[in-house]
Design goal:
about 120 residues, mainly alpha, 4 helices
Amino acid sequence: MLVQRFGELTVEVVAAEAALLVASGAVTESMLNPSEWSAAEAAVAVATVKVLAERAALAVTSGAFELGGPAAAARSMNLDRHWRNTRTHSLEDPIRWKYHHLGRFTLLGVSPPRYRQV
């Protein structure tokens, strides 16, 4: 079970890293060949990374307690700060809006809003 759980967490992190590479390419393309469509594709790619990175961060920080057992929750370990920091950042820019904009783009071709709303 322990090895499997580390494998599951690895998949989460690697998926976020792969999406980051795709997003960086989309942002670069949008800067080199600016258009409404390239900007929308870049915004969608970045929103996808945000969703995957947040999910991975929450899974890994929660997994630290799951895998470390009671010792991981000891105040001396101070591991709770990682989960708390991840959760705080997730509240500042909630992914529920990312899902909404990603769905609208995928189903209806509606470009996501610009600036900090994606």
